């Protein structure tokens, strides 16, 4: 079942580890088959070193396991909540990458300070509101997804493919699993750069909106001309 | 004698080095056989590159060498003091990992700022009081252990498996040598994240207690459901 | 066409990646054949892992592709603007290396704080003025080059082979592609060192001009005697 | 001539590179044969990748080349000045390691903040006075050595085997080339730790003198008992 997508999600999980944004089992990647309404996701707590494509788990959008012998990631409900709310996206990633987590712990959005961020994200990286005690105790993983969705009111998840969950860490997404991993790695890098900028200047000068727009459009706009396309 | 445990402790010492939390001989791992009351520990000052399982040293809880041709780690008395005071633990690790040492040098506990720490430690990482001159000159390695034990009055060492010794560095422990190494690596990572958070915001916002409790219980509580268990 | 120069530029792009100053496709190296007035440059958006020397693109100084099947780097016009304004230089590099970007985001020049920088750069690393909205929308990549050239009024690009573009990132150059890569790596390193110095002291004490002069002259002056020359 | 010592110095230079405290040719190691009064030192500007033991250069204490086809390190006079002033030492290292350079650029000594430093250095890592213009223009490399020697009035170079040259970078030494490299790596590590501590607390609390003494004596005192000796 969904053998090709399971291979893709497996390789994307390995890539996440290879890129240095994950230690131990601190991350997970999923992807969705929109036609079938099924999500392939990393199993919970299985080390990257011994993980295989057959360890991937297939769940439906109500979080029922429909294929696989392992338990799915403990963050599965957050992933499915995002897939249901954001029909544009095909892959989701969660990590505890160091600098992104640090900004999430600071409960600060990452302002757009330069073209590195503007090439991927049409503005600041948003940060959710902290969950209430009621939200945590009702259905934590679902309400985490809901807090992200609430924060994206008025934002386009295709243009801002990353978020910080206050006190927790980053989620990123994209058109597929690979693209989501790419965005998670970029998020860690821009969080690192913003940390250094904050070290050497205060207040931090935001990038001019017209430069932000130019860079984002150059890569993602209607007439994008970056790369070999 | 204790061949299996010696292999375990040897591999855990190598893992400590491979995870990048140790340079030269700046760390040591031990494990205890509770039935026999014997501790296996790394030898003093032997490079990781040439160390073998046969270099491990077996001592009793009074610090007498009962097996092995090498001298045990200079920190042996600290390890045995912890094993005597904390019957729940099976392995102990000491490192000079960079960020954990920096917080120990600052003589600051690491507040629990996010779920990364909450997944492993049910609150802040405590920091001991500085040793007095009398303590240092009486029996330094033993009094170091005693300062840790004193700091844990009212704390559960199973729920808080890590500590900073003021002006010195971190100790971590766990149910066995591997688990202790895992906690030592996590401690370095959360110390690194807390450093970055402190760089970008002041004061540092602590994690809500109900999130801390939820995350800790999800992994370690009676009804823990993280991983494949 | 220009087979040898294409090999050189290809290898210099790989070196840029190997030195850790680039992730994904976030950098580009070019070199010029001054006699022919032709520039060899990296293609746009091709991953380093699969890139070959035959993917390099040859353009003239008016940015017309004269050889190659790929599209040239999106930053090509910045490179050619620099070649036209600075006849002394033979290679140009652009990266998004972390610390250099952070200073560019802070819109601060990097003062010369020590001999490490003085060995390569006869003074501070300059930072351009931000581009105006008109400049961005007219011809962004060309005006980026022009902003660099404007900033170098009164400066010798052979003696100051590196610059920060405000809100964007670093460019470096040299007598050929290899030399430009070397200077890009040095720029990242001195930006990193300056960041740390700014962390531990304020204000930052600049290097005495006579030490700066001595070190720069020792390596680059008429009577330079560093190395085996 | 001095084949064994040349091998030692060559391997120590490679080790310096392998330990990550040097990029390009930014470091040099030497060792002395005290009976013959001859010093073996790295050649100037030769890349580590292609360097061999036969590239090492032998000089006398007046800086005359007595063996070898290469030019000696541009810092040779600093090394020989140290050997003449400090008869206890057998090896000298100079690097531009990142954090040590940053403290040198800040012109701050590194206070002894913890036992990591106390295990190697009986107090703060001293920082020289800046050189005067006269010193720089008279005989820069010799006066650099003299500034170090002046700073060590009242200090024991065997107990404090490392120094920062203001605005420049670190020198370290030891009983032989290997020991000097070890101390240079330790210096970078303690500089890194002190930087982090300075980030999270202000003022920085120095280590109690009695802990410093205990740790230093444990490894280096008359009754040292660390390691397998």
TrEMBL record, chains A, B, C, D:
<keyword id="KW-0479">Metal-binding</keyword>
<dbReference type="InterPro" id="IPR001303">
    <property type="entry name" value="Aldolase_II/adducin_N"/>
</dbReference>
<dbReference type="GO" id="GO:0046872">
    <property type="term" value="F:metal ion binding"/>
</dbReference>
<dbReference type="InterPro" id="IPR036409">
    <property type="entry name" value="Aldolase_II/adducin_N_sf"/>
</dbReference>
<keyword id="KW-0413">Isomerase</keyword>
<comment type="similarity">
    <text>Belongs to the aldolase class II family. AraD/FucA subfamily.</text>
</comment>
<keyword id="KW-0119">Carbohydrate metabolism</keyword>
<dbReference type="GO" id="GO:0008742">
    <property type="term" value="F:L-ribulose-phosphate 4-epimerase activity"/>
</dbReference>
<dbReference type="GO" id="GO:0019323">
    <property type="term" value="P:pentose catabolic process"/>
</dbReference>
<dbReference type="InterPro" id="IPR050197">
    <property type="entry name" value="Aldolase_class_II_sugar_metab"/>
</dbReference>
<keyword id="KW-0862">Zinc</keyword>
<dbReference type="Pfam" id="PF00596">
    <property type="entry name" value="Aldolase_II"/>
</dbReference>
<feature type="domain" description="Class II aldolase/adducin N-terminal">
    <location>
        <begin position="7"/>
        <end position="195"/>
    </location>
</feature>
<dbReference type="GO" id="GO:0005829">
    <property type="term" value="C:cytosol"/>
</dbReference>
<protein>
    <recommendedName>
        <fullName>L-ribulose-5-phosphate 4-epimerase</fullName>
        <ecNumber>5.1.3.4</ecNumber>
    </recommendedName>
</protein>
<dbReference type="GO" id="GO:0016832">
    <property type="term" value="F:aldehyde-lyase activity"/>
</dbReference>
């Amino acid at each position: 079942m969904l053998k090709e997508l399971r291979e893709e999600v497996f390789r994307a999980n390995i890539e996440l580890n290879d890129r240095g944004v994950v230690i131990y089992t601190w991350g997970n990647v999923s992807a969705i088959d929109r036609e079938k309404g099924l999500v392939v996701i990393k199993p919970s707590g299985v080390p990257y070193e011994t993980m295989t494509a057959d360890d991937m788990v297939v769940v439906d959008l109500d979080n029922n396991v429909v294929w696989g012998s392992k338990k799915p990631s403990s963050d599965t409900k957050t992933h499915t909540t995002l897939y249901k709310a954001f029909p544009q996206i095909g892959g989701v990633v969660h990590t505890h990458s160091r600098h992104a987590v640090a900004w999430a712990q600071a409960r600060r959005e990452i302002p757009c300070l330069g073209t590195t961020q503007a090439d991927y994200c049409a503005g600041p990286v948003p940060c959710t509101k902290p969950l209430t005690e009621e939200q945590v105790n009702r259905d934590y993983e679902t309400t985490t997804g809901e807090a992200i969705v609430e924060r994206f009111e008025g934002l386009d998840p295709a243009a801002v493919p990353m978020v910080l969950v206050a006190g927790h860490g980053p989620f990123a997404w994209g058109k597929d699993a690979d693209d989501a991993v790419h965005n998670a790695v970029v998020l860690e890098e821009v969080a690192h750069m913003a940390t250094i900028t904050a070290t050497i200047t205060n207040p931090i000068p935001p990038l001019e909106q017209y430069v932000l727009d130019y860079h984002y459009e150059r890569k993602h706009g209607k007439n994008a001309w970056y790369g070999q396309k």
